[in-house]
Specification:
The structure holds two protein chains of two kinds. By secondary structure, chain A is an all-alpha fold. In chain A, 75% of the residues lie in helices and 0% in strands. Chain B is an all-alpha fold. In chain B, 72% of the residues lie in helices and 0% in strands. Chain B contains twelve helices and no strands. Chain B is globular, with a radius of gyration of 20 Å. The two termini of chain B are 34 Å apart. The chains are: A mainly alpha, B mainly alpha.
Chain lengths: 267, 269
């Protein structure tokens, strides 16, 4: 385990160095992410200032959900760029080379690149979280901050898990399936809002099947000191973040199964 | 005119090759539209009694559908091929072509926008029009005149957008790396074109920017004509504004290209 960690950090440092060679590019790209996601939150603010509330939710409350899910996807995105290139690895035969190395291939993929660019999105998400926390009516204690941290972590594990699923599907399709964007980016979009505003079928799917809603909404409610308008028990908030790591473990198991049954074309 | 039409046709045919990817894109777009409509329905439902939004919920739903169907018009991407040409020197071949370089690039930019839209829009519009459940479905425009004006404004929108993308290519000739210009363009396109919110729902300062920068002309104006938020009688200033953008941006792009081409040095080898 410690060997794996040392190796991971060596590879990550290498990836940072490579990116800093293109410093201006990296900074500008990070800035453009800040600009894009900041304008998204700006639009949300504009809607609140015109309509007053969102079905009884205030901007500060929505900012908590928004911040959790955005920070989660920014973290996940930063560490799993390697998975993004998986289809090319598979097509070019590069993946066979990874299999020859004495380390787990999934580990190598995750260590391939950690992007600095996503720092912009993370910074914006944290800024929104800070705003949300400070604009709430009650002050937050240790429990609430722990819940926030757990929710962000859980959300990021779900996104990494989804990208691992997407990579696993490449074994069957060789092309990366863009429809999966509905689950990843669509899930991120949906998680930004309180679940109550969505139709029941959508809600159930993003709680029971792809649990982004589960790990963002219920811990978020506990942070906000609100009862679920739909009547979910209060303890769900503290338990829900566990679904994230479980989802990730499941995704890893599926990926491993696919690797075991993988047959290279050999050319 | 013939070489430009041929360029347009060739680039269009190549854009139309990516049908499977487009189908995936349409599915994603449908999901997006559904989410956005749910959010708008919730916001409009929270509006205090007796207050009215400057654009009705029905109009907003139509706006979301059309925006998802036509989002490829928005000039958020550059022509990577032109930038690659500048770096690897292929620009020399471009200069030997017996056509006007600006016109050639413009035709490519136009067909890229048009092809991407043609691939996605029809299927998405059919679903929005016929399959989506009644209160959330896309409605017909309020009058035939509104529809005709929308089509004209849409055609102009393509021309404005292509002029913006070509201008970015021209900037690439100047600076090789144009991340900065790209940053401005993508942020402007995202915030000011109507992809996030239509001008009437934006705060006043942003609405003003949408009015006085070309981004609004690429999507917001035609869509508001369709939904009837801009009435038929108010349509003429809109179309004139679009025409002014087309003229201004193409003239500026062409002038800038001529100036920078005079200074291009192709390193032999």
């Amino acid at each position: 385990m410690s060997r794996a960690l040392t190796l991971y950090f060596t590879l990550v440092r290498q990836s940072f160095r490579a990116q800093l060679e293109y410093r201006a590019d990296s900074i500008l790209l990070a800035l453009s992410y800040v600009a894009l996601s900041a304008s998204e939150f700006f639009a949300l603010w504009a809607m609140f200032s015109r309509f007053g509330s969102l079905k009884g939710w205030t901007l500060a409350e929505v900012a908590i959900f928004y911040g959790i899910v955005e920070a989660g996807i920014a973290l996940a995105d930063a560490v799993s760029r390697g998975l993004d290139h998986f289809a090319e690895h598979l097509k070019s035969g590069n993946f066979d080379r990874l299999l020859l190395r004495p380390v787990d291939p999934l580990f190598l993929l995750l260590a391939e690149e950690v992007t600095v660019k996503r720092a912009g999105r993370l910074a914006q998400a944290l800024a929104v979280l800070v705003y949300g926390c400070s604009a709430l009516d009650h002050t937050l204690g240790l429990r609430e901050f722990a819940l926030l941290g757990a929710a962000v972590f859980a959300a990021s594990t779900i996104f990494v898990g989804l990208w691992i699923f997407q990579a696993s599907l490449c074994f069957f399709t060789t092309e990366s399936l863009e429809v999966m964007n509905i689950l990843t980016y669509g899930g991120a979009q949906l998680g930004q809002y309180p679940l109550t505003i969505f139709p029941a079928s959508l809600r159930r799917f993003f709680v029971g099947v792809v649990p982004i809603g589960l790990v963002v909404y219920y811990p978020g409610l506990a942070v906000l000191h609100r009862d679920d308008p739909l009547g979910a028990p209060a303890w769900l908030g503290s338990v829900a973040p566990l679904a994230g790591p479980l989802f990730l473990v499941f995704a890893v198991a599926v990926f491993k199964l696919c690797v075991r049954r993988y047959q290279s074309t050999g050319s | 005119m013939r070489p430009y039409l041929a360029t347009f046709g060739a680039a269009l045919r190549s854009a139309l090759q990516y049908r499977a990817a487009a189908l995936a894109g349409v599915t994603t777009q449908l999901f997006w539209a559904a989410l956005r409509i749910a959010v708008f329905v919730a916001f409009y439902g929270s509006l205090a009694e007796g207050r009215r939004a400057p654009i009705s919920l029905e109009q907003m739903i139509d706006y979301v559908w059309l925006g998802q169907a036509l989002f490829a018009i928005v000039p958020a991407q550059r022509d990577r091929a032109v930038e690659a040409m500048m770096r690897d020197g292929t620009i020399a071949y471009e200069l030997t072509r017996p056509v006007d370089l600006y016109g050639y690039w413009y035709a490519r930019a136009l067909s890229n926008r048009f092809g991407a839209t043609l691939l996605r829009a029809p299927l998405l519009l059919v679903v929005a029009f016929l399959i989506a459940p009644a209160p959330y479905a896309l409605r017909a425009p309020p009058s035939t005149a509104a529809f005709v004006l929308f089509v004209v404004a849409l055609a102009f929108a393509f021309l404005v957008s292509a002029a913006l993308v070509t201008l970015l290519s021209v900037v690439a000739v100047y600076s090789l790396r144009n991340q900065g210009a790209l940053l401005l363009l993508s942020t402007g396109a995202w915030l000011l074109s109507g992809l996030l919110l239509p001008a009437p729902l934006m705060p006043e300062a942003i609405a003003l920017l949408m009015k006085w920068l070309p981004f609004g002309a690429t999507m917001d104006l035609p869509l508001r004509l369709y939904v009837g938020q801009i009435g038929v009688s108010e349509a003429w200033p809109v179309l004139c504004q679009q025409l002014a953008w087309i003229a201004g941006l193409t003239l500026a792009g062409r002038a800038l290209l001529l100036r920078s081409l005079a200074r291009v040095v192709v390193q032999g080898g």
